[in-house]
């Protein structure tokens, strides 16, 4: 028990390393969370070039079996992958979670809507990118199914309409404040921008919400944050 507590204290107080790609939509989720929690000074960034396939090399796969970004390495060498898991860790480090919920009800709603954002928007845009466009290029994209990619593009647009309807009735995606769920939708729209998949013109609530989110310093400065030494 004492050894476990000492390890937790070491991790909580030490520097962390974030393996990511500065313009990546999935890494954006963790970068935004870092800014919201004012943890930039606690993180060293290591760039993993997606376009060169560095995330599929044996060296990186040893850190994350899935070969995806981002990955957070703690002071004791513990590796945490998956955006939701990383955000949960960062948000609860100080014992005062603001992104993942402070009550069981908030936590349930935020995790539900975060997963819905992944299933209905972010992941479909990713599939469209990898299968319905040239993606990361032939050296990385070893298999593509264009029909599947186009189907997922259409699913992403339906997801945009779902969140547009939701945001006509409330200011944030889940709970009563900005949360991990909002970050997931932001990442989906960042990815949609990259693949030139616009928000439908009649989705006024989603467009207005996204404009507000882009004005948040954590979102606006997410790329530049790794250029500033801690």
What key phrases describe this protein's structure?
alpha+beta; Glutaredoxin; Glutathione S-transferase Yfyf (Class Pi), Chain A, domain 2; single chain; 9 helices; 7% strand
What would you note in describing this structure?
By secondary structure, the protein is α+β, with helices and mostly antiparallel strands. It folds into 2 domains: 2-95 and 220-227, Glutaredoxin, CATH 3.40.30; 104-216, Glutathione S-transferase Yfyf (Class Pi), Chain A, domain 2 (Up-down Bundle), CATH 1.20.1050. Helices cover 52% and strands 7% of the residues. The protein has 9 helices and 4 strands. It has helices at residues 2-13, 25-36, 58-61, 83-92, 104-132, 146-167, 180-194, 204-214, 217-220, and strands at 16-20, 43-47, 71-73, 79-81. A 4-stranded mixed beta sheet has the order 2-1-3-4, with helices on one face. The longest helix has 29 residues, at 104-132. The model has no long low-confidence stretch (mean pLDDT 94).
Sum this structure up briefly:
With 230 residues, this protein is α+β, with helices and mostly antiparallel strands.
């Amino acid at each position: 028990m004492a050894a476990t507590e000492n390890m937790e204290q070491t991790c909580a107080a030490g520097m962390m390393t974030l393996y990511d790609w500065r313009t990546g939509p999935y890494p954006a989720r963790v970068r935004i969370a870092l800014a919201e929690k004012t943890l930039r000074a606690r993180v060293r960034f290591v760039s993993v070039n997606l376009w060169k396939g560095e995330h599929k090399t044996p060296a990186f796969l040893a850190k994350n079996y899935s070969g995806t970004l981002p990955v957070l390495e703690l002071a004791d060498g513990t590796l945490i992958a998956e955006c939701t898991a990383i955000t949960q860790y960062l948000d609860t480090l100080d014992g005062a979670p603001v992104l993942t919920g402070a009550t069981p009800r908030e936590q349930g709603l935020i995790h539900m809507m975060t997963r819905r954002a992944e299933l209905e928007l972010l992941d479909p845009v990713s599939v469209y990118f990898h299968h319905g466009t040239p993606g990361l290029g032939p050296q990385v994209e070893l298999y593509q199914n264009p029909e599947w990619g186009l189907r997922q593009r259409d699913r992403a647009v339906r997801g945009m309409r779902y969140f547009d309807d939701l945001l006509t009735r409330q200011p944030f995606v889940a709970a009563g404040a900005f949360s991990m769920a909002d970050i997931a939708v932001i990442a989906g729209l960042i990815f949609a921008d990259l693949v030139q998949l616009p928000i439908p013109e009649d989705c006024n609530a989603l467009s207005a919400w996204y404009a507000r989110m882009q004005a948040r310093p954590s979102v606006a400065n997410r790329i530049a944050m790794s250029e500033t030494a801690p």
